What we know:
The protein has helices at about 5-30, 40-70, 75-90. The chain is built from three helices and no strands. It folds into two domains: about 1-30; about 60-90, no CATH class. About 80% of the residues lie in helices and about 0% in strands.
Amino acid sequence: MTREAGVLVPIVRRIPLVVFASLELAVLLVALAKPAYGYVDPGSGLLAVQVGGSMLAGGLFILRSKLRRLFRLTPPSEKAETEKSTPAESGE
């Protein structure tokens, strides 16, 4: 058995569990649904859009920083050295 096959086996076993858990959650949400008696003004929809946009922007920022760290586009050591050497060179 190769290493690749060993990695794929747990993922294949998890897929039915994730599907079953999602189905169970959907059934519970439908079964426990209650009518909402409340007032929602037009500004509430805009607030929901703003919250969604903020979450998307934050998620993209975190994803970008994780990808940079993964691919080491700007290693922290080089960045620190560049910041330290820049003021010293300009002062000379």
